[in-house]
Design brief:
The chain is mainly alpha-helical. The chain contains nine helices and ten strands. It starts with 16 loop residues before the first strand and ends with a helix.
C-alpha cells in the first residue's frame, strides 16, 4: 500500500471526506480490498506506511507511462473512415481525462447532460466531477462499469495526479514518493527477446520463496545466477549502454 496505483483499494471507511450527489461532505467508503478485509476482520484496521528498505535502498517500482504512447499503422491511416473513427476515440479520451476545466465540463455536459441529474461536482473547488451512479445506471444499465462480460470502462493511464480528495489523501501519506520510474519507455531488442521468459522464471522463484520451497538467504545467489543465465544480464547491459548513449546525445545538444 505504498503507491497511488493501489492504495485506493485499501482505503478504510472515513479515511478522508468527499462530496456526495447532494453536495454534502461525507466520509469515504472502504476500498474494495478493505471491504474484504473488514468482512473477515471487523474489529481490525489497516496501517499504512512507506516501502521497506531492501538491499538496494528504499523504494517501489512505479508504473511507467507506456500507455501515453500511441502508434498507428499505415493500414489505419490510409482508410479515411477508420482514421476518422480512431481520431474521434482519441478526442473522446482526451476530453474525458482533461485537466482543462472548460473541456472537461463540456465533455460531461455532452455525454450526461446538464449538471445535477446524472452527474455532480464531487469536489467543486477543484472541478472534479462524478456520476450519480444509482440514477444513471438505473436508467442505462447497459453502460454499467461491470456487466456479464466484465469491466467496460476504458481510458489511458493518467501521467498527472488529479487533485481529487482520494488522491490528496494518498499524497498526504507520501504515496507519490519513493517510486522507481522506468527510465526506458520502450522495449529494447534484448527485452523483447527475454522478457516473457524472465517474468515467468521470476514468478516461479518468488512462489518458491513465499511457500518455503526455496530459502531466500541460501538460494538467492542461485536465483540471480539463473536469471542472468536466462538473459537478465544481457538485458541490463543493453539498457545501461542505451542510457549512457542517450545521456551523451543529450549533453551534446
Amino acid at each position: 500500500m505504498t503507491v497511488r496505483g493501489n492504495f485506493y483499494h485499501w482505503v478504510m471507511p472515513g479515511a478522508y471526506q468527499e462530496y456526495n450527489a447532494e453536495g454534502e461532505l461525507v466520509d469515504c467508503v472502504a476500498g474494495n480490498s478493505a471491504k474484504e478485509f473488514l468482512a473477515v476482520n471487523p474489529d481490525e484496521t489497516l496501517v499504512y506506511g512507506q516501502p521497506v528498505t531492501g538491499p538496494y535502498g528504499c523504494g517501489v517500482k512505479n508504473w511507467n507511462l507506456l500507455a501515453q504512447i500511441y502508434c498507428f499503422s499505415e493500414d489505419a491511416t490510409s482508410n479515411p473512415e477508420k482514421w476518422e473513427r480512431i481520431c474521434a476515440i482519441m478526442e473522446y479520451m482526451d476530453r474525458q481525462y482533461s485537466t482543462d476545466v472548460e473541456k472537461y465540463t463540456a465533455w460531461y455536459e455532452d455525454i450526461y447532460g446538464e449538471e445535477g441529474h446524472y452527474w455532480y461536482w464531487s469536489d467543486p473547488d477543484n472541478h472534479i466531477a462524478a456520476l450519480s451512479q444509482d440514477t444513471f445506471y438505473a436508467e442505462y444499465p447497459e453502460f454499467a462499469p461491470v456487466d456479464e462480460y466484465g469491466p467496460t470502462q476504458w481510458g489511458p493511464t493518467l501521467p498527472i495526479l488529479l487533485p481529487t480528495p482520494q488522491n490528496r489523501y494518498g499524497e498526504s501519506l507520501g504515496y507519490t514518493e519513493l517510486g522507481i520510474d522506468n527510465v526506458i519507455q520502450f522495449s529494447l531488442p534484448m527485452m523483447a527477446e527475454y522478457q516473457t521468459n524472465l517474468t515467468n522464471l521470476k514468478d516461479t522463484w518468488m512462489i518458491d520463496f513465499i511457500t518455503g520451497a526455496k530459502d531466500v538467504d541460501a538460494d538467492w545467489d542461485a536465483y540471480i545466477a539463473e536469471m542472468n543465465a536466462s538473459g537478465l544480464e544481457e538485458m541490463v547491459q543493453e539498457a545501461r549502454e542505451w542510457y549512457a548513449s542517450s545521456q551523451s546525445e543529450a549533453a551534446a545538444e
